[in-house]
Design a protein that fits this description.
- The structure is a single chain.
- By secondary structure, this protein is an alpha/beta fold.
- Helix content is 51%, strand content 13%.
- It contains twelve helices and ten strands.
- The strands form two sheets. It has a six-stranded mixed beta sheet, with helices on both faces.
- Strand 9 and strand 10 form a beta hairpin.
- Helix 1 crosses helix 2, helix 2 crosses helix 7 and helix 9 crosses helix 11.
Length: 330
């Protein structure tokens, strides 16, 4: 008897490896939008989970951002039911507009909705269908923004209950897996709208593969893997340094830190003070760093939030929004 198509086998193999350490009867949920990546993920979960003694379900999030999104979400939920997944929940996300932009706002709402369902159902693992192509797009966007190692390290394959088993697979493989199993994925019209940054990054990768030769996507994803361990170690060291600089943070203590740690601590201080993490760039952190190691009376530093940072009596302090109160940078 012939085995499954190569792309189907690849999705099942990747998922089996991601779930190998789970105890029997663990509930595993797949986040499914109806697109090729998440549909292939749902199909792989429906096959792998019962053979591994696991329970398998799915969550579909309706962002409500385009006409007919409720029908698309219901259809995706029905596909999951037809595959044999139980429970399957279709939930509405509450997208709140912020200064981070529509893509970040939708992502935050989606993750909040997914996490709420996983928490309520007691799921041990929540699966996301990101592929190697998504990882490369993430790294490219980090490069364009001038981000540090953490951003360039891309998405982790596992963090807490969230797992991304398909980071080693390509988008072409998930599409082929859907075709081989008779699944007709939904094509999000937003994926062709160049108003979105990620869409432009996706097209840029196509152009780079054409102009520089095949392998750009794989190389960017590989770079993320190499950087992740370095970034994890630096973040651990930054945790300790963050707790050591005082409240309010003492400029002298900050100046004594190695630059790589100091910049990480400054970023954390800025976010804790109310700066928008999605819009905080390396240039902002560099300006904060200048308050510490290259101060000649300048200030304040304007950060997205809005937040103003200034050096006062050998410490860093912020002013949030339109408030006139100068607050410690904690």
């Amino acid at each position: 008897m012939p085995g499954p198509a190569p792309a189907v086998a690849a999705t099942r193999r990747a998922l089996r490896a991601a779930l190998a350490d789970l105890p029997a009867d663990t509930l595993v949920l797949a986040a499914c939008s109806g697109g090729a990546d998440s549909s292939a993920l749902a199909a792989a979960l429906a096959f792998v989970a019962p053979r591994a003694g696991l329970r398998a379900g799915a969550v579909v999030v309706d962002h409500g951002l385009q006409p007919g999104s409720d029908a698309v979400s219901r259809a995706a939920g029905q596909v999951c039911l037809d595959l044999g997944l139980r429970p399957v929940e279709v939930v509405a996300a509450r997208v709140v507009a912020t200064c981070d932009g529509p893509e970040a706002d939708a992502r935050a709402a989606r993750h909040a909705a997914l996490d709420a369902v996983a928490q309520r159902l007691g799921a041990g693992v929540l699966l996301l269908g990101h592929t190697r192509d998504d990882q490369a797009e993430q790294v490219l966007l980090g490069l364009v923004r001038g981000s540090g190692a953490r951003s360039l390290a891309g998405m982790p394959s596992r963090r807490a209950r969230v797992a991304r088993p398909f980071l080693g697979l390509t988008r072409a493989q998930t599409e082929a897996a859907c075709a081989a199993q008779g699944l007709i994925p939904w094509v999000d019209p937003h994926n062709a709208d160049r108003a979105y940054t990620r869409v432009r990054a996706r097209q840029a990768l196509v152009d780079l593969e054409r102009d520089l030769g095949p392998g750009v996507v794989a190389a960017l994803a590989r770079s993320a893997d190499l950087l992740r361990q370095d970034a994890d170690l630096l973040d651990e060291l930054a945790d300790t340094a963050y707790r050591s600089v005082g409240d309010p943070p003492d400029v002298a203590r900050l100046a004594d830190l190695p630059p790589a740690l100091r910049r990480r601590v400054l970023r954390r201080l800025a976010v804790a003070a109310g700066a928008s993490p999605g819009r905080l760039r390396a240039t902002h952190v560099a300006a904060l760093d200048a308050l510490v190691v290259d101060w000649h009376g300048q200030g304040p530093v304007h950060l997205p939030g809005p937040v103003l940072a200034r050096r006062v009596d050998g410490t860093l302090r912020w002013r949030r929004g339109r408030s006139e109160d100068t607050r410690p940078a904690r």
